[in-house]
Amino acid sequence: LFLFLLPSRVGTLYLTATHSIFVVNEAGVRNETWVLHSLVFSAEKQAATPSGCPLIIHCKNFQVLHFVIPRERECHDVHLSLQRLSQPESYEELYCFSYKPNVDEVERRQEWDFLDLKTDYSRMGLPNSLWKLSPVNRHYKVSDTYPADLFVPESATPPVIVGSSKFRSRGRFPALSYYSKENHAAICRSSQPLSGFSARCLEDEQMLEAILRSNPCSDFMYVVDTRPKLNAIANRAAGKGYENEDNYSNIKFQFIGIENIHVMRNSQQKMLEVCELRSPSMSDFLEGLESSGWLKHIKAVLDAGIFIAKAVAEEGVSVLVHCSDGWDRTAQVCSVASVLLDPYYRTIRGIMVLIEKDWISFGHKFSHRCNHLDGDPKEVSPVIDQFLECVWQLMEQFPCAFEFSERLLITIHSHIYSCQYGNFIGNNQRERIELGTHSLWSHLWTNHADYINPLYRPDHSQTQGLLRPSTIPGSRPGFPGIFLHGVCMFSLCMRGFSPGSPASCNSPKTY
C-alpha cells in the first residue's frame, strides 16, 4: 500500500538481451533499476495520453513498473520486444546459461556440491535397520519424475516397489520424505493410486504394509489425501482416485481439501489485484482480500501440515501423503510439516535443504508452474509461493524460532522465477540442467549474514521441537505477508516509479 507514495522520475529505458534497465536522468541523481526479462509476467500497453503512452509491466515477483514513453511507436516497439524477450521458447534461452559471475569452472562445480541430500538423511539417522537407500530408480527407469536416490522400507523388495509404481500415477510410488529417529514415525509421499472404482494391487498394498511395519511404535498409519473429497471421487471415473480402506490393512484415511492449481492461480490473481488498488480504504482492502480466498487456501495448507506434524510428533504415527500426481499439494504439506517438526529446517541452511529435497528433488514442475518458458498458461500456479507464504505466517507467530528473516524468503522467491540460477530449471531432477549454470544455494550461503533474523534464539524453548501454530481467525496475521512485503521492499529500492507515479522515459536506446 506504500506503492503510490513515490515521485515520478525522468530517465532512459534500455532493453538488452537479458534485462530492462531504467536509468534516472536527473541532476544529482544516479539510479539504475535492472529487471530481468525472465521476471516479466506481462507487459500492457495502454492508450496514449497527452503526456505519452503508458506501459505497465507486471513481474512474477510482484514488482509493478509503470512507464510513460513519449512516442506511441517507441512504446509499441518496447512492448513487442518485451513480449518476445520475456517468453523464451527453449531452456537454452534462459538467463542462467548466459549468467557468468566471476568464478572459475572448479568453483562453479563446487557450488553444486554445497548441498548433499544424503547428509540430511544421515542427520535423520538413515539408513538404518528400518529404512534403506534403494537403487531401484537409478537412471529414472521406474519413475522419470522422481529422484534417482530414494529411501524405502527395508522390507520393500524391488518387485514390490516396481509393482506399486505401476499402480500409482506417473509411477510415483510411496517413498520417504521425513523420518523421526526419536519415535520412528515417518512421512512418505506418492501420487494417487490407479484404483478407479474397484481395482487393487497386491504390491501397492504390500508397500503400505512395509511402511507401517517400519514404525514399530504404531499399529496403524494415516493416508492423507490433500484434495477435496469430491475431486478425488471424480478422479475415480478416470481410473484413478484413492485407497480403498477395505484393501489396505490398518490405515486411517483423511481428506484435507486443498484446492487445485487452477483455483490457486485465480485466487492469487485476485489477491494481487487487491494489493494494487489505488488508495483503497481499509474495509475495501480487507473485503477484497477475503473474497480472493487466498488466506483461506494458506490456512488449508497450514492445517494439513499441522495434522501431519502432530501425527508424527504426538501420536508417533507414520503418514503417507498424496494428491493427484504428488508434486504440488503433496510438496506443500510435506515441507510445511517438516518445518513444524524439525528446528533444522528453520535455519538458513535447513530451509535450502528442504526446498532441494521436497520440491526440486521430488519433481515439482518449476518450469511449468513458474512460467519459465512460453507454454500452457493453465499449467502456471503459485504452489511454491504458497509454501513460502506459509513459512512467513509461521515466522510471524514464532519470531524467535527461525534463523532467517523474511528477506531470505523474498530472495528465494525472486530467484525461483528469475532463471538466473540452474536450481529451478526444468520440471524434475532428470530434466534439470546443471551444465554451465550456477547454484543459488552457494550464493545465498556466501551472503548468509544478510538474511539473519536478529530475534532468533537457538537456545529458546520455542525454537526446539514441534511448533504448534494456531490458524483460527484472529490468531494469524490478516495479510498476505510475503506479497505485500516483497512489493513494498521493491518499491522502496526503486526510489522513483510505481503504478501511482509513472516514470517518464526518453526513447529507449538499446534493444
TrEMBL record:
<dbReference type="InterPro" id="IPR048994">
    <property type="entry name" value="PH-GRAM_MTMR6-9"/>
</dbReference>
<dbReference type="Pfam" id="PF21098">
    <property type="entry name" value="PH-GRAM_MTMR6-like"/>
</dbReference>
<feature type="domain" description="Myotubularin phosphatase">
    <location>
        <begin position="111"/>
        <end position="483"/>
    </location>
</feature>
<protein>
    <recommendedName>
        <fullName>Phosphatidylinositol-3-phosphate phosphatase</fullName>
    </recommendedName>
</protein>
<dbReference type="GO" id="GO:0106018">
    <property type="term" value="F:phosphatidylinositol-3,5-bisphosphate phosphatase activity"/>
</dbReference>
<dbReference type="InterPro" id="IPR003595">
    <property type="entry name" value="Tyr_Pase_cat"/>
</dbReference>
<dbReference type="InterPro" id="IPR030564">
    <property type="entry name" value="Myotubularin"/>
</dbReference>
<feature type="domain" description="Tyrosine specific protein phosphatases">
    <location>
        <begin position="292"/>
        <end position="336"/>
    </location>
</feature>
<dbReference type="GO" id="GO:0005737">
    <property type="term" value="C:cytoplasm"/>
</dbReference>
<dbReference type="GO" id="GO:0012505">
    <property type="term" value="C:endomembrane system"/>
</dbReference>
<dbReference type="GO" id="GO:0046856">
    <property type="term" value="P:phosphatidylinositol dephosphorylation"/>
</dbReference>
<keyword id="KW-0443">Lipid metabolism</keyword>
<dbReference type="InterPro" id="IPR011993">
    <property type="entry name" value="PH-like_dom_sf"/>
</dbReference>
<feature type="binding site">
    <location>
        <begin position="260"/>
        <end position="261"/>
    </location>
    <ligand>
        <name>substrate</name>
    </ligand>
</feature>
<keyword id="KW-0963">Cytoplasm</keyword>
<comment type="similarity">
    <text>Belongs to the protein-tyrosine phosphatase family. Non-receptor class myotubularin subfamily.</text>
</comment>
<dbReference type="GO" id="GO:0004438">
    <property type="term" value="F:phosphatidylinositol-3-phosphate phosphatase activity"/>
</dbReference>
<feature type="binding site">
    <location>
        <begin position="323"/>
        <end position="329"/>
    </location>
    <ligand>
        <name>substrate</name>
    </ligand>
</feature>
<dbReference type="Pfam" id="PF06602">
    <property type="entry name" value="Myotub-related"/>
</dbReference>
<dbReference type="InterPro" id="IPR000387">
    <property type="entry name" value="Tyr_Pase_dom"/>
</dbReference>
<dbReference type="InterPro" id="IPR016130">
    <property type="entry name" value="Tyr_Pase_AS"/>
</dbReference>
<dbReference type="InterPro" id="IPR029021">
    <property type="entry name" value="Prot-tyrosine_phosphatase-like"/>
</dbReference>
<feature type="active site" description="Phosphocysteine intermediate">
    <location>
        <position position="323"/>
    </location>
</feature>
<dbReference type="InterPro" id="IPR010569">
    <property type="entry name" value="Myotubularin-like_Pase_dom"/>
</dbReference>
